[in-house]
């Protein structure tokens, strides 16, 4: 048999359904076709779709999954962008702060070294000028009184020494004049010193305004002979008995007892006071220049701080290095190291670590220096603007800033080492400057946090705009999808699965862009005006092996004329619904229902060899199902309902 299926024929057949059976037929048919599509794995389902079959729900789910993946990808990209930009901004700002910190530290370090070096040069110039003045005054005094060194007392000592201290801006310094006394002059010197000490004590007390001690009390605290102290806690003065010259302290500024010794330094031999002072004195003797060494300065309470011992030569007449004038005395100056670092920076420029290291390598017999046995003294200070804080007598800088240090080294003055006794040493000084965490913190700002927050806020706003746009698009897509699903359900009710799938395929190939105000519907998609105007071939196929089954109700006209419409609807709904289930079970294609006639076909749209056998079985089962259904409906529809019979016809 030849059968033709087309879009128009299907619509025509559907439109001829009776009004009393339309609801039952539509629901039964759509249920039948949809069930057939879903049961593709069942061998009895002839309408099982091929792998390319269009399934609206699966397409929607797939597209939703793709959209979700795209959203997640965009969200991750935004998050990555936020993190990257915020991190980059944070690192750039921190690098700028670090660069500014390093530049400022280098400037501070240069300023400290330059200012401290300038202060030292000013100190040595002042001492040299003071020593030259003492030599000139002594020369004049000696010519008038026919005297000579060491028997000389400088008039107005405290006034002149105070000017030197003020000139170098150091009030904590100790300045002393110590003549060089030869061995044969010791007794005469002892008498001279004891006579002159009360005189310059009284003069200094008056000039300095010193009231704590009287002149006589200072005399009582003075040892009346050239002496030294054992290096222990006894503080017992011992007379100097070794041969050679001695260098006793004579005039001192300021005039006051030594804090540790509880006595005046007057008459104490400077050469025996410490090994460092003796070494510095020897170098000054050889170089005829001021020499610097290490010492400790008592500050009371049996404590002391590190400092410098400076020995400035005084010559018989104005100071000179080139001539052979005799070195007759020395100026002994002791001052704390921290005075070199005071008043170098402005307020607020805090946190500069300064490490001063003095080491004294010994000279060997051949003139070389032994650095392995060098006596090293290391002290750490922190410069806070004009003030200085002693942190400790060790290298206490933060190792984190090892790569930022600035170094300055002084290796003493040139001289002939052969002129020094073996074992002597020349003090050498090294200054290293480091920044501190406190200094770096002063350059840290909240800019990195501010910029990071700004970046996060900008991206958060961008993300919010994106989410709002995505929500708007998603809502529009859901609206469109709902329309499409509704149309798909309509199409599923109108066409068989195979025909519907082919229609979708053709529609996709001949896609027409539809405006937002013109929804995609049956009028402009599958039927109506566009059915033949799109240039596509009609959907028509030849089915040579098909069996038709006709089934109608006997005595239905008489029965229905005595019933209410809803009773008729219940009867047809029940019977045709049962037939639909049997059709699905046997693989029978329901063509249409016309009044009380149920038309079906076997062998289309999916060809099968046993179409005639299946048609017979389907007709037999429909007759059985009819009898059972009418018996059940007899109670609700009347006793003559069971008298209805089913007449079937098969056409091959």
Break the fold down into its secondary structure elements and pairings.
Blueprint (H helix, E strand, L loop, with lengths): L6 H9 L6 H17 L17 H90 L11 H11 L6 E6 L6 H23 L6 H6 L6 E3 L7 E3 L11 E3 L16 H4 L1 H13 L3 E10 L2 E13 L11 E10 L13 E14 L5 E16 L2 E6 L13 E5 L17 E8 L1 H5 L5 H48 L2 H13 L12 H4 L21 E8 L1 H6 L3 H22 L2 E6 L2 E6 L8 H27 L7 E7 L1
Antiparallel strand pairs: 1-4, 1-7, 2-3, 5-6, 6-7, 8-9, 8-12, 9-10, 11-12, 13-15, 13-16, 14-15
Helix content: 40-55%
Q: Sheet bearing the most strands, described?
A: 5 strands, antiparallel
By secondary-structure content and strand pairing, the structural class works out as: alpha+beta
Residue windows where pLDDT falls under 50 for at least 5 positions: 1-54, 512-531
Q: What form results from the Cα inertia axes?
A: rod-shaped
Q: Give the DSSP E fraction (strand runs of 2 or more residues).
A: 15-25%
> How far is the N terminus from the C terminus?
7 Å
The helix count comes to: 15
Q: Mind telling me the C-alpha Rg?
A: 59 Å
Major sheet: order of its strands?
4-1-7-6-5
Overall pLDDT score = 78
Number of strands: 16
Fold and architecture overview:
With 652 residues, this protein is α+β, with helices and mostly antiparallel strands. It is 46% helix and 19% strand. The chain has helices spanning 7-15, 22-38, 56-145, 157-167, 186-208, 215-220, 270-273, 275-287, 437-441, 447-494, 497-509, 522-525, 556-561, 565-586, 611-637; strands spanning 174-179, 227-229, 237-239, 251-253, 291-300, 303-315, 327-336, 350-363, 369-384, 387-392, 406-410, 428-435, 547-554, 589-594, 597-602, 645-651. A 5-stranded antiparallel beta sheet has the order 4-1-7-6-5, sandwiched between helices. A 5-stranded antiparallel beta sheet has the order 10-9-8-12-11. A 4-stranded antiparallel beta sheet has the order 14-15-13-16. Strand 14 (589-594) and strand 15 form a beta hairpin. Helix 3 packs antiparallel against helix 10 (447-494). The protein is rod-shaped and about 170 Å long. The relative contact order is 0.12.
């Amino acid at each position: 048999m030849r059968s033709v299926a087309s879009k128009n024929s299907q619509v025509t057949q559907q439109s001829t359904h009776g009004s009393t059976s339309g609801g039952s037929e539509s629901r039964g048919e759509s249920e039948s076709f949809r069930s057939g599509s879903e049961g593709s794995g069942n061998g009895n389902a002839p309408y099982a779709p091929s792998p390319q079959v269009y399934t609206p729900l699966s397409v929607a789910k797939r597209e939703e999954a793709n959209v979700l993946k795209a959203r997640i990808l965009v969200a991750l990209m935004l998050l990555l962008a936020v993190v990257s930009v915020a991190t980059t901004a944070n690192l750039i700002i921190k690098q700028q702060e670090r660069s500014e910190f390093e530049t400022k530290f280098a400037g501070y370090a240069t300023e400290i070294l330059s200012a401290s070096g300038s202060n030292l040069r000013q100190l040595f110039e002042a001492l040299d000028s003071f020593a030259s003045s003492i030599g000139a005054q002594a020369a004049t005094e000696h010519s008038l009184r026919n005297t000579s060194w060491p028997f000389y007392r400088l008039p107005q000592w405290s006034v002149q020494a105070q000017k030197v201290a003020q000139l170098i801006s150091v009030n904590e310094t100790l300045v002393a004049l110590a003549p060089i006394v030869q061995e044969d002059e010791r007794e005469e010197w002892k008498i001279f010193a004891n006579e002159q000490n009360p005189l310059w004590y009284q003069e200094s007390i008056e000039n300095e305004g010193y009231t704590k001690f009287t002149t006589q009390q200072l005399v009582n605290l003075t040892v009346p002979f050239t002496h030294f102290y054992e290096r222990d806690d006894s503080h017992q003065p011992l007379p100097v008995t070794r041969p050679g010259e001695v260098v006793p302290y004579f005039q001192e500024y300021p005039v006051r007892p030594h804090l540790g010794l509880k006595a005046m330094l007057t008459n104490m031999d400077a050469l025996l006071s410490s090994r460092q002072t003796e070494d510095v004195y020897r170098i000054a003797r050889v170089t005829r220049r001021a020499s610097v060494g290490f010492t400790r300065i008592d500050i009371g309470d049996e404590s002391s701080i590190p400092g410098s011992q400076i020995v400035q030569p005084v010559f018989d007449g104005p100071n000179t290095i080139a001539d052979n004038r005799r070195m007759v005395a020395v100026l002994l100056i002791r001052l704390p190291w921290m005075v070199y670092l005071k008043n170098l920076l402005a307020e607020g420029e805090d946190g500069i670590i300064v490490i001063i290291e003095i080491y004294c390598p010994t000279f060997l017999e051949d003139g070389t220096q032994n650095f392995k046995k060098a006596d090293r003294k290391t002290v750490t200070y922190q410069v806070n603007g004009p003030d200085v804080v002693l942190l400790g007598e060790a290298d206490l800088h933060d190792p984190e800033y090892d790569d930022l240090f600035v170094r300055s080294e002084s290796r003493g003055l040139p001289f002939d080492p052969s002129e020094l006794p073996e074992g002597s040493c020349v003090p050498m000084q090294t200054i290293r400057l480091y920044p501190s965490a406190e200094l770096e913190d002063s350059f840290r700002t909240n800019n990195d946090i501010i910029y990071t927050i700004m970046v996060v806020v900008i991206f958060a706003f961008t993300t919010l705009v994106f989410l709002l746009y995505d929500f708007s698009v998603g809502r529009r897509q859901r609206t469109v999808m709902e329309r499409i699903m509704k149309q798909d359900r309509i199409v599923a009710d109108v066409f068989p699965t195979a025909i519907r799938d082919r229609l979708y395929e053709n529609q996709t190939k001949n896609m027409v862009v539809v405006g937002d105000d013109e929804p995609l519907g049956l009028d402009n998609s599958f039927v109506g005006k566009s059915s033949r105007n799109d240039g596509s071939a009609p959907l028509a196929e030849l089915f040579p092996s098909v069996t038709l089954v006709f089934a109608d109700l006997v005595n239905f006209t008489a029965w229905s004329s005595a019933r209410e419409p809803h009773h008729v609807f219940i009867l047809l709904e029940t019977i045709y619904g049962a037939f639909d289930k049997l059709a699905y079970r046997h693989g029978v294609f329901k063509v249409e229902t016309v009044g009380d006639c149920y038309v079906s076909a076997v062998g289309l749209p999916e060809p099968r060899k046993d179409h005639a056998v299946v048609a017979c079985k389907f007709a037999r089962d429909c007759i059985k199902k009819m009898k059972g259904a009418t018996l059940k409906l007899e109670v609700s529809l009347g006793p003559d309902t069971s008298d209805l019979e089913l007449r079937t016809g098969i056409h091959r």
